[in-house]
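Q: How would the structure tokens look for this protein?
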Amino acid sequence: MINRVRFSFGSVLILSAVLSPVGTGVAAIDKFEPYAFAGVLLDSNIFRLSGDEEARARFGSTSRNDTVGHLGAGFKSDLKLSRQHLLLNAEVDRAIYDTFDDLDHTKVNGKAIWAWQVGNLWSGNLGYGYLRDMRSFDQRTVLDPDPLEKDMRTRQVGFVDAGYQLHPDWELVGGLEYSDVSYQDRKILDRDATSGRFEVLYRNTLNSRVGVRVKYADNDLKEREIEGIEINNDYKETQISGVLYWEASGKSALEANLGYTKQSFDDFDGRDYNGSTGRLKYFWQMTGKTKLDFSVWRVTSTQSDEVTTYVLTKGASIAPTWSVTPIFNLTGKIQYEDVDYKGQNDIVTALGGPRRDDDIWQLGVTADWDPRRYLRLSLGYKYVDRDSSIDVNDYDYNQVDAKVRVKF
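A: Here is the predicted structure in token form.
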């Protein structure tokens, strides 16, 4: 399947090369934005260690910080052919660590999307995404070959979706997606997933929409053996939810989905989950220069593919933005999450182990200055504190991030 996805992506690239020389009457480049950036990140706890005692045991000192330099380039493009759009985005980012230079790596991120339209009733997307980056140290476990070593992972996603305007007020939307995630060392996390979704949406004259969404996913973890014990972590997930997009006025909007999620594991059904899930986002343009984004959620996830089962996360965030001047913006964020490792807790506690539940606070602020149309200077600060029911999983860290970005 992956080979077919790669072939499709290659075909899209070839198509773009063929169309590029065509006259503007047939095809035109609506947007081509190459850019380059450089930055430096100061992190007070690069390996997410629980404290000075763990740092001293691993490194012989209490030093946990590092400085990371970033140098990269990329582009965003939109090739228009009649009513079709070919969107190509790519970015390469080289990360260089000052102290722990074994972590030096290159991040590659790219996406190709054919945004198609047929007549006035059919539209959709056909695409492929590729990401190669370094796994974070947030989810270190005793099962890791070496929890403090660099581990590169590769994500590939192929997807297609289509919408049909059944009636001026009614729309049908369906989609399919296949993803593959592989790790350089932690093969226990390798997985692929196939999912499909279907939505029925009603839109009124005020550009508000309400509908029903059904989603089904089949998750297959490839590694069957952990510490010599064969375990099947494959599971299937079904979601049924109501969706709402409501524009109360030109200054506020609400986006929400609320429903029911069922997860069924092929083995050890004590890990199954049946319950309510949902997410609500509210956008408020308070004044011409200030706005507020508010979110609350109760969702299941795999922590960016870094756990073998799933977690149930309940949280809320507030993100204010202040446009101090037309070229200077301030953005803040306050977020709280309660992370319940439900996919493993019942099994672990039945075997006499401790239950895991994490409380995570995140505070941050970013300043963006655009002194020229092609130039952006950014400076940000973030603080994260994780308080876990298992003390060794506690950590906190501070980050200061400065970046220069130039568009050509």
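The chain has three helices and 20 strands.

Helices lie at 2-19, 52-59, 342-350.

Upvote if useful.
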